[in-house]
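Protocol step 4 of 6: structure prediction from sequence.
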Amino acid sequence: MVSNVEQLYLDYSDRVYRFIYLLVRHKETAEDLTQETFYKALKSYSQFNHQSTVLTWLLKIARNVTYDHFRRKRIIQFFKWGNENDGDTKNPSPESSAEKSEDLAQLYEALSRLKEDYRDVLILRKVNECSIKETAYILGWTEAKVKSKMTRGFEALRQEFYGKDGVMNGSIKRV
C-alpha cells in the first residue's frame, strides 16, 4: 500500500525534476533539489490551501529551493552544456541526433543569456507546459505580467538566437 506522501512523489517527481534540471543542468544537483522540494512540501503540506493544483504548488517550492541553492552557491552560469542524459529515445540517425543536439544546445545557449524573468516564464510555459494562471502563481506575478513577459521573452530569445549577424542558427517557433 502506498502512502499519500509516496503517491505525491510518484505522481509529480518527474515533472519537478525536469523543471529543476532545466534550471541547474546538473543531474545530481537536480536530484538533490528535487528531494529537498518534496521534503519542504511534506513539512508544509498542512498549509497548502488548494488555491492552485498540487503540481503548481510543488513547482513554486522547486523554484524557491533552486534559487536558494543558486544564492548559497553564488552560481551565475544558469545552464551547463554536454549532459550525457540529453537525447532522443527513438533511435535517430547519427546525423539527425547530432543536428538536434546542436540545435538544442544553441537554443539553451540563447535561453541562458536572457534575463531571469524571461527564462523562468519561457521554461514554465513552454517546457513544463504550465498554464498562464499556474505560471503566475509560481512566479508570484499577475496573469497580465506573465503574458507580457512571455511576449518580451520570445522576442528576446529570437534576437539571441538570430545573433548579431541576423542569420538564424536554428528554428524557434512561437506557440
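Step 5 (inspection) to follow. Confidence is low (pLDDT under 50) at residues 75-90, 169-175.
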